[in-house]
Structure formats: C-alpha cells, structure tokens
Design goal:
Blueprint: H1 2-15, E1 42-52, E2 68-75, H2 76-83, E3 97-102, E4 118-122, H3 129-145, E5 155-161, E6 168-173, H4 179-192, E7 200-203, H5 204-210, E8 218-219
Antiparallel strand pairs: 1-2, 1-3, 3-5, 4-6, 4-7, 5-6, 7-8
Length: 220
C-alpha cells in the first residue's frame, strides 16, 4: 500500500492544480475531482480533515467549540484534490489547528478511541522557517494514510498546531499503556520526518490531571 501510494502521488502532484489564493478551508468541502470511482486508488481507511479556531483565537475554556469536520476521503485522488486546494499550515493564522483523523474518530480526548491513548509531538526546526512545518505535515499525512507505520491500527490521527511561539505536529494513538507499539510509532515517525530532535509521548490522562506539569511517558 505504501509503495502504491508513493507511486500514484508522484503523478497526482504534477497533475493536480494548486490554488494558493484560496482563503477559506471550507471551500474544499466539495470534491473537485470528477474521475470515475473505478479509476481511483482506495486507501485502507477513510480519513476526515477537521479545522479548529478559524479566527486564530485560542481560549482554553472554549476549546473545541469551533472544531468542525471539513472533508472525508478514502482514495489517493480525493486526498490530493483536497490537500492541493486548501491553505498550507504555514499560511494559517496563529492559534489554528488542522487535524486529519480516521473517519469516525473525533480529535478529542473524550472520544472512546482516544480516551486511553496519548500523543507523540514534534516541533519543526525554526531554522527551516515555515516551510519545515509544511514538509513535516505532508510527510506525516502520507505516512498515515499510506499505512507506513507497523502499528498503524494504533494511530487515531494527526494534528498540526500553528502557534506564534512554536508550531507543533502531533500523532495521536489509542493505547498509551502499550509501550512497545508507541515506541515503534515514535521511532518510525522520527525517521519519516527526518527529525534529529528528541520526541516525547504524553498520555492524555496525565495531561488532563497534571496540565502543564505533565511529563512525557516515553521518548525516542
């Protein structure tokens, strides 16, 4: 699946037009690809893009109030149709979050699939500018939807958080207590995004109880 995805996306990237002047994420809710379904390349899972905080205002007390599902896809072609017609993370306002989760899973701690899990977090190097953020995000998405992780069933989704102080990208997983699975995901992700810094895994329950005092359960 991963090889097929990589092969297909090479041609799709060249064929699909980009619309860098688009200013609204919701503009891509309608698929722009009208190719017959039989010619598309299906993915192992369906995925949903979510967008939060479109005004760039982050208020902890109202977190999630502006979270909304934007687009669901289950083929390689539909992924690129959406991806190439929305703003890159580097163009979003500070405070915005863009999520890509398996269909049926909401990017919230309260979702049953996420409740007992946690997340790996990476910070793109500032030396690379905003371009590093876009690269990390794209490589993470392709690895997820292309099932490149050995423990892919453990993965719930990923989120990119645009912040003035430090942009972040995180991969959410289901079972925090499964150390072997989480460490495997962390190591593979580190290779995928070519990250030289240490990555930490924070358990959702620890984050809820200890807030800013919570510490990483695992590191790679």
């Amino acid at each position: 699946m991963a090889d097929e995805l990589a092969e297909t996306t090479k041609s799709l990237r060249l064929d699909d037009p980009k619309a860098d002047d688009l200013e609204e994420v919701e503009i891509a809710e309608k698929p722009v690809d009208e190719a017959p379904r039989a010619k598309k390349h299906p993915l192992e899972h369906s995925w949903t893009f979510w967008f939060d905080n479109p005004n760039g205002k982050q208020k902890q007390a109202t977190w999630g109030s502006s979270l909304r599902a934007v687009y669901t896809f289950d083929t390689v072609e539909d992924f690129w149709c959406f991806y190439n017609n929305v703003l890159q993370p580097s163009k979003l306002n500070a405070g915005a979050d863009f999520h890509c989760f398996k269909a049926g899973i909401e990017p919230k701690w309260e979702d049953p699939k996420c409740a007992h899990g946690g997340k790996w977090t990476a910070q793109p190097p500032r030396s690379g500018g905003k371009a590093a953020l876009d690269t990390y995000w794209l490589h993470t998405l392709l690895a997820m939807i292309g099932e490149q992780f050995d423990e892919s069933e453990e993965i719930c989704g990923a989120v990119v958080s645009v912040r003035r102080a430090q942009d972040k990208i995180a991969i959410w997983t289901k079972t925090a207590s499964n150390e072997a699975a989480q460490v495997t995901i962390g190591k593979q992700w580190k290779d995928i995004i070519d990250c030289n810094d240490k990555l930490g895994y924070l358990v959702h329950e620890d984050a809820k109880r200890q807030e800013k005092g919570a510490k990483n359960r695992y590191t790679v």
